[in-house]
Amino acid sequence: MISFRHIFAITLFCLSFNLFSQTTYPKITGYFGILHPIATFNSEQTSVNFRDYYAVGFPTGINIWKNQKIGFSFEVVPNIRVQGNSDKVTNLLFHPGVLVALGNGYTFAGRTAFESSGRYGITPVINKTILKSDNCSYFAAIPFPIRFGNDHPASFTVGFQFGIAF
Q: Could you read off the pLDDT of 137-157 as tens digits, one per residue?
């Protein structure tokens, strides 16, 4: 009979292989992150996260690199907002885009944005790989969402994102 110890040992052995390492293109990577919008500006007001409410997003995506310089990315971002005693998922963002490697661990992502709230727009993102190992890398990014639609004034947001890619 197989014990828990045997299952654990087999699992560790299997996970020790670098299953996702690819040296040929197209190269596929996945990632997960945490996004904190810092401030949103529009013609009517300036909203600052952490002051009257707390908003957080969880970007999850897949990157398909065509070669070392250019790739395609598809990201989905559920957003949660906590205000007073209320917390809820406020939006789901569909975020396809193009990736351009800038060198020295920097990447530019030019994304289109389609939100379940009825807003749409673009999101330029500057991304930097902070730590890289054989199995994963840790990154930080600064997104600049620009949104239109749904009877709201155009808005511009500055955010901070960090995450892990594998």
A: 999 999 999 999 999 999 999
